[in-house]
Prior knowledge:
- By secondary structure, the chain is an alpha+beta fold.
- The protein has 2 domains: about 30-115 and about 155-220, no CATH class; about 250-715, no CATH class.
- The protein has 25 helices and 19 strands.
- The strands form 8 sheets. Strands 1-3-4-2-9 form a 5-stranded mixed sheet. Strands 5-6 form a two-stranded antiparallel sheet.
- A hairpin with a 2-residue loop joins strand 7 and strand 8 (about 200).
- The protein is elongated.
Amino acid sequence: SPVSLRRLPSHQPSSSSCPPLSSTALPDKPCFCPQEEFNDKPDSLFFNDGVRRIDFILVYEDEDKKDFEKRHTFQRRKLNSLCLLQVVDEKLMFVKVHMPWEVLCTYAEVLHIKLPIQPNDLSSRPSPWRFFSCITKHFYPNEELITKESEFFTAPFEKDRLEYFYIKDKDLFFTPSMRSRMAYYILSRAPYEIRGHIKKFGITKLLDGGVYKAAYPLHDCRFNVRSTEEDCPNERFVLYEEWAHPKSFYKMQPLDLIRKYYGEKIGIYFAWLGFYTKMLALAAVVGLGCFIYGYKTQETSTWSKEVCDPEIGGKIVMCPQCDRFCKYWRLNSTCEASKKLCIFDNFGTLVFAVFMSIWVTLFLEFWKRYQAELEYEWDTVEFLEQEEPPRPEYEAKCIYERKNPITGVKEYVPFTTCGRCVRVSIGIGTVLFWILLILASIVAITVYRLAVFFVFSTKLRTQEIKELEPFKEYVTPQMATSVTASLISFVVIMILNILYERLPRTKSEYENSLTLKMFLFQFVNYYSSCFYIAFAKGKAVGYPKEPVYLLGKYRNEECDPGGCLIELTTQLSIIMGGKAIWNNIQEVLIPWVKNLIFRYCTRVPSQKVIPRWEQDYQLQPLPKLGLFYEYLEMVIQFGFVTLFVASFPLAPVLALVNNLFEIRVDAWKITTQFRRVVPEKAQDIGAWQPILQGIAILAVATNAMIIAFTSDMIPRLVYYWSFSVYPYGNHPNNTMEGYINSSLSIFNTSDFSDFSKPEQSNSSLIISTCRYRDFRFPPGHPRQYEYNGYYWHVIAAKVAFIIVVEVIYFLKFVLSYVIPDVPYSVKEQIKREKYLTQVILHETNLKAAPCEPLTELRPKIKYGL
């Protein structure tokens, strides 16, 4: 029986009954080594013998007897192939886990880990940037610290054919990340309680129940101090210096080293984030050029000059935008807002929207190619085709027996058909409830807009708000309402986001299902207010005689005479900027403060040498969802950059600046503030890929709709080109002079209803007519207040524009077909690797094996659990 897991005095001499590393036979009994004294090497990754490597650490407090029984069962069953060492540290017990060679070979085959069989003999194509190496070398990590690794053809490991694999050194054949991944695979399936047919197992359940305090692989050194140990590669130190340190913000990411140290799942995230950021640089340059063009032309724009002109805009009296208490106002009071609108609503914006529709397609197609290269280089090409092990949490719930309709073999599933329907219904109901809650908040904010606009319209125009009197020239009711409503909307978004994330969820909802549910909630939460401003506000307001009312009480909100685009721009800038600042502060401060508090509460004498496993225990564990929220944050940002870019060309610039910080913040956080994560395999970015494709398709439609129905671009183009044929006014052809006057209809103030008629002011000025934004016949016309011919020409032009944009949508599929998902060179290497695997591992054995009768052949049963 195993030795008792009890506290041992710190002065007890070291001893070990574990088999040596070279042992090829699995021990029959669990191997619990007595405590060994610490060798005062803070960065040592080995047992005291300097041979056995520490592959995993378990931490617990030996107080609860019930927990002791679970730990005893857990460490006695299924862990007899590992070497465990108990270490005492006053309050905590640290269990060192070591994987012997035979166990490594066995589980490398179980997990289908691909390992080298032969150096890559295919010549690589020279980089097109090699001629600029004297410049580009400064943007790459230091080659002296991060050397380029040799390329190999690989194949799934088979321990019976060990001699065919490229093994130089047994100690280095399996990398530390492979060893910790195999150790975690065993720990996640070791049982701790068996009662009849019910079996409870897995380190995750024990961690959730508090039986163990922590379970983690070790970092190889301190992040800011190079280790002096001979066998330490100092990869964490190198990653910090060349990747996570703020001084390296301009350098390319060492993706191969990231993948080697943290695994493919984290590596693919940083690869995608880096690729997205590089592609954003092109969009940011074009968007910044569009913004500069708008900024330079705002003073010379004909329509803004007419609004600000005292002889034009100063003489145009606008109708009140609310009932009774709102006053008449002059058009030139919106002079500054009109200039700001011209920055974002100009002909350059139209070109930029078309460019972004093509950019988003190129981004996704080139990412597929780059992802295919990483799949080959990181040995994940056939990852999903192999027998990927099921999650332990899924296996634990498999208690219902059924017959597999394909194989005919009995198997266990976690739910019956009825149970699955109930779970799906509950999940859909929960998501719908939160979406309805978001929509209710949007309605509440809309009511706030209407009420506050009424207050600002009545008080600001009568100078009752003394504090704003110096800014009266720049602050309009529309702007004041827009800014305050956007700020409130941002606060509501963040509150709902926090509440939704706090909902209890289990790992059985992972990962694609959880991704879709969470993105659906975030999509409605972040974008609903933007969709309202872009496609609902000001679209159904009627005209002064017959305005449209919301909820039968509030008069529907109108747009500024220049349109709603400036308000959409304000909403986007506040949400994008506020979200980026909040997330970066949160990601930096929270783990740093937690570690600071933990270190303060567990202070040790300064002269004490802290071993590697205790240093890592003082760090924060990576959240269970891993990098899920980092992906979600970037995908939401991608939506802002693509869905509404026609109204905010600076969105790619803001996203680029944020991502340059995001890469280094995530790198700093994962390298310095978190324990080393268990490496996981990943072939791609998972369910986020189809979500990005869906956003890209939707982006073409939303930008076309924004330009057609939110922007004033189409009416301006119609006015510019059509008056030589359709003379709706007296002005020189092919100029924008007189556009403001033509875009405002005339209303006779005597036609106001008793409810909406504004109260007469003390002014002696009698106003007989006022203007409003629409295309209707004037009073006295046989069809007064009905839509005129110009209105129908504008509608036809908008529909025609949307149809033309469909050509761009078609171009997306053409580009998808023309650009292959997998580069030709990668296809060659994959075929070469499969050929070598067939020749080296299979055909050689077939030639050497004697012929046997067909009846004697039996399927080989692999080592299982």
